[in-house]
Specification:
mainly beta; 207 residues; disordered N terminus
Length: 207
């Protein structure tokens, strides 16, 4: 190989590397190489495709409920691959091309989730062996916790006391009694007892 022509660029035999700048992110480019001998006779051409990398700009997390989180991502990419992580497992979610929002449902109340977001270009869906990196740098979100929830309770009585057994997913619970008493239970404590009550009297509790 004495010389190859790439568009308006000639690469001689002593320098076989050239760099193209001012290209667009997340875009495939096709290059046709034409080799020449020292006498100017061309040989068979060779065509290759290379993709520039995709990029992430930012993300927002919103609409957090007891069992869902909304994640919106901005950037220049073909599609997103998102890994949802907890302390015990990882789940990979691949969004359809062009989709920038994940509404992740079926989550567990009062549990911390981390999302690792990776952008991919169109080359990652190609069956052809192309050149270049198929994915860009990932963003790892901070830990986001779903809202706590109370799923039910049971109660027991004595003539002068009421005991509540509280079920749900939470770090701690506050109990407001119609007597005016307000109590914050210790972390993960689910039993509350109020004493000194009057016999044959109705009491209301807000959890």
């Amino acid at each position: 190989l004495a010389e190859a022509t790439m568009g308006n660029i000639n690469i001689d035999n002593t320098n076989r590397t050239t760099t193209f700048t001012d290209l667009t992110l997340n875009t495939g480019y096709t290059f046709t190489l034409v080799p020449y001998t020292v006498f100017g006779v061309s040989g068979s051409t060779y065509t290759l495709t290379a993709y520039t990398i995709p990029v992430l700009y930012d993300y927002t997390v919103s609409n957090i409920t007891t069992n869902s989180i909304q994640l919106d991502v901005s950037g220049n990419f073909y599609y997103l691959s998102i890994v949802r992580s907890t302390l015990t497992n990882n789940t990979t979610i691949n969004l359809s091309p062009g989709v920038t929002q994940l509404i992740d449902t079926g989550l567990i109340s009062d549990l911390s989730y981390t999302y690792i977001i990776t952008p991919y270009n169109a080359d990652s869906n190609s069956s052809t062996v192309n050149y270049g990196k198929k994915f860009g740098n990932s963003i790892t979100t901070a830990n986001f916790c779903t809202l706590p929830s109370i799923t039910g309770y049971s109660n027991t009585f004595t003539p002068y006391s009421i005991t509540l057994n509280i079920n749900g997913y939470y770090k701690y619970v506050t109990v407001q009694s119609s007597t005016g008493s307000f109590t914050q239970l210790s972390d993960r404590v689910s039993i509350y007892t109020e004493t000194g009550l009057l016999q044959n009297t109705s009491y209301t509790y807000t959890l």
